[in-house]
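COMPLEX REQUEST
Ligand: MTE
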Amino acid sequence: MQRRNFLVAGFAAFVAGCNEIGNSDWFGKVVEGAQGWHRGLHRTLGGGRIAMAPEYSRSDLSPYFRGNGSLSVDTEAYREAEAQGFANWQLSVGGLVDNPGALSLQDIRALPQRIQITRHDCVEGWSAIGEWTGPQLSTILEAAGVQPEANFIVFRCADKLNGGDYYESCDMDDAFHPQTIIAHRLNGEALPVKNGAPLRLRIERQLGYKHAKYLTGIEAVASLDDIEGGNGGYWEDRGYQWYAGI
Ligand SMILES: Nc1nc2c(c(=O)[nH]1)N[C@H]1C(S)=C(S)[C@@H](COP(=O)(O)O)O[C@H]1N2
Ligand SMILES: [Mo]
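STATUS: Structure written out below.
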């Protein structure tokens, strides 16, 4: 079996098993439900940090959600992907997992979705409230089968900022936190390019720079030491704090 199919088959079994939906029709039904997925919550209740970031209502939405940092990806491959509506975009899932593979946007949209209205706080001194939609990262990690040696999840991005690859990371408490999602929609629309199309991380208890945009891959690792500058993120390698809690 192709690696990709192995991971996707893992999802089907996982989602079907947890929702008691038969393999044949899991695809439509789980999307329709748009229910929150609470497996991550159970796990964090078992000893991790359980605090939830505040959630807001539609009337609180900022009229305009600005873009910051990279506002697009300056490569031929990205321009081509954008022209194709990101139909062939892939999110790789690898590192210390039992079922490495890659997910298409279609795969991502077929998973149970979480919708959350949260406030984004950038260290540069601005905030905005937006509604984000996407599967919980925990769903993807459960299906991939994270190995016990893994301590961190690394997020790979398509863009470079001032010549350096943008990337981020978090620990397993935040990776499995219910509000940590792989967002593909902002305010009910496909994620705009300036905000990280087609996929970006929302990790709601942390500051803006942790919310990696233009996601191309997630990787389970034991240590951050050998990754890029060794501090767990683009801005962390330039002096910012790794745990950027709000
Ligand atoms: N790939 C990537 N992700 C990124 C950045 C970036 O430059 N590249 N900037 C970060 C910063 S500092 C902030 S405040 C938010 C901005 O998200 P927005 O563009 O949706 O406002 O994205 C974060 N994630
Ligand atoms: Mo930021």
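REMARKS: The CA atoms of residues 73 and 159 lie 5 Å apart. Helices lie at 3-19, 26-33, 39-45, 76-83, 105-110, 137-144, 172-175.
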